[in-house]
Amino acid sequence: MRKLIYIFSILLTFASCSGYIDPNDPDNVPEGVLRVFADRTAIAADGLQQVTFTVKFGSKDVSKDADMNLICITGDSETSLRPGVNTFSTTVAAEYRFKARYYSGTAYYSDNEVVVKASEVAQSVGVKNYHRRLWGMQFTAVSCTYCPRLTANLKKIMQENPGRIVLTAFHVMFDESVMTDPMKLTINEDFRDMVKHGDGLPLFAFNMVKDAEGIVDQEDKIRARLSDHPADEQASCGVALSTTYDSGTRSLSITGKVTSNVPEQMRYHILLVEDGVEYAQAGEDAGYVHNAVVRDVLSDSKWGDRLNNGVKLGVGVEASVTRTVTVDRDWKPENMKVVFAALRQSGDSYICANINECDLGGSADYIYNE
Questions:
Q1: What angle separates helix 219-227 from helix 147-160, to the nearest 10 degrees?
Q2: Model pTM score
Q3: Where are the domains of the chain?
Q4: 51-68: per-residue pLDDT in tens?
Q5: Could you count the other beta carbons within 10 Å of the beta carbon of residue 135?
Q6: Which of 15, 95, 220, 283 is the most exposed place for a label (fewest CB within 10 A)?
Q7: Bridge partners for 259 per DSSP
Q8: In Å, how far are 7, 37, 162 from 354, measured between CA atoms?
Q9: What architecture is domain 134-364?
């Protein structure tokens, strides 16, 4: 026994004297070395559970740095995650390997990999394969010369991908000395603050998520973000809505419905948008037409309102909310849509889990993947 203790003591002394550094300790990464760590190595493939990675370049934390990106390897396939993204979730059960890349004068690659196993989730009673639509958030202003270019790129992408994106155009404050925008709303500024990188326009984001690089009007970036979401992506919840409209009183009743595959607290947004609004636009000919204009947001908060009175939704149990609003006399009901978005918590904020839309007086049922 004494001999074993003696040998163990020698090994400890050697480790101490040789400057041994634990490769699993994010606080002790050698300078000039890139290393990746994960807060968990097993998740459920439900699209909700996620891994958060810590990436260290020596003592510097570059986990959310725009010059860092994770590389995900499954089988023979290798995919680069977006710069600055340090979380991962999936609906596909598989074993995933992750390494990191960081650019600092030259490209550095992590000297280690992290293996994450995503396990298949047993289909509980009430769980359905809901199709996920994406909330496209466009920020624009009539005084913005470059904003029509974003509009044109979005139109092209949406025509090529019908039904994938529910677009809302938030008009915001921008260079009022050039032109005043009558379509801007105060709450639109809160939405912009949520996703912006600077004060410039145009600006675009998906699902209330701030893009790591920022999207101005680049078609390739929008396509890249869209490709992050498979056409048959399963949503964590389904969204449906129905409306009734009285043309005499211009009263609009909206009922939004959400059925979740997971027990969680949710919030919601209801927006009224209008197409075919003719108004001047900087750099464009007279009679310019603005579409998907956000006319009203039925919430005082960018995080929306509590669904189901703040109580967790049960799996497969529908929760609904009904709101009534008067449509402004200056708006054309025949050109309008109601947008209903279901929000789920992500860290200390909320993101859009699913979204749907319908004409005034119309309805939209749950959408399923085939």
A1: 40
A2: 0.77
A3: 20-119, 134-364
A4: 999 999 999 999 999 899
A5: 23
A6: 220
A7: 238, 318
A8: 61, 31, 16
A9: Sandwich (2.60)
